[in-house]
Amino acid sequence: MANSQFVLLTGATGYVGRLLLPCLLKRGLQVRCLVRDASRLSAFTSPRLEVAQGDVMDPPSLNRAMDGIETAYYLIHLMAGAGDFESQDRQAAKNFAKAAKVAGVKRIIYLGGLGDERNANLSVHLRSRHEVGAILRESGVETIEFRAAMIIGAGSLSFQLLKSLIERLPVMLCPRWLTTPTQPIAINDVLSYLIAAIDLPADKSRVFEIGGPDVVAYIDLIREYAKQKHLRRWLINVPLLTPHLSGLWLALVTPATYRVGRHLIEGLRNPMVVSSTDAIDVFPIQPVVIQEAMRRAILEDQQGGTLSAIG
What is the tens place of the pLDDT at every residue in 124-163? Predict the structure, then answer.
């Protein structure tokens, strides 16, 4: 891969995008970031960095940002905004896919969510993530979609929810769905996959399910965090606490808004486990175990989020 390749990065002010940007620059790539507020990237300086002010909901700005781009990262999720996030994410993906096709982009790299799409009870949040991937693939531009469960890293919203609950509640009510199986992945491993996707030989669009080596229950993540922080917590099983009520509860005890917290919590009822070995077969990446991922996330959190930037 030539270092002169021109990459478009969306979501550069979000958690994953903010960490991915310096990794791409370290590789010598020319990076253009599409952001609504250019001042939010003022901390990044590089002769290979361009900032294009625009919005995925504004097609003309997307068309300008796509000019000359070979690979485009789609790290957009509108769940935190007001209104119907499903329709907004759908329209944003259609705008992005159309602009990429017109501009002659060779590859789209997208980070979505795990979950069996054949499951009729798949949460709205996860179903929307899958729909976005389908829209990008239908553009005709080769799309590499990564599907992940909880990302373990200091700035991940799911990790922040976990941290806030454990830190604030010495006694925790644990509904039955906290025993749902999940396969979390460390943020550095997610970054490794996103970067490695640039070097894949040109081929058809593909979906890769990515996760760490451990399949656990969410309650195991609570126990692991508490263990590593030396916190004694009492966990009480309360099978009648519904995901909807849990969202209301989260709004009282965590910094997340009720809206975002509720959608994330509702997704916990769905198993999020890797069902294909394709990612392991294709990429030379060995994700770390839960204990190490949690250790790194806690250390990163204590040091102000400075550790998760792989070379």
Answer: 888 889 999 999 999 999 999 999 999 999 988 888 888 8
Residue 304 pLDDT level (bands cut at 50, 70, 90): confident
For the chain, give the mean pLDDT: 86
**Burial track 58-97 (b if 16+ CB lie within 10 A, e otherwise):** ebebbebbbeebbbbbbbbbbbeeeeebbebbbebbbbbb
| Sign of torsion over alpha carbons 234, 239, 241, 244 | positive
The full set of domains in the chain, from first to last, is 6-149+185-211+273-286 (3.40.50.720)
Residues 6+ apart with CB under 8 A from 295: 228
Cβ proximity of 250 and 265 under 8 Å:
yes
Give the whole-angstrom CA distance, residue 226 versus residue 174: 15
d(CA 203, CA 90): 25
Per the CB < 8 A criterion, the answer to whether 149 and 240 are in contact is: no
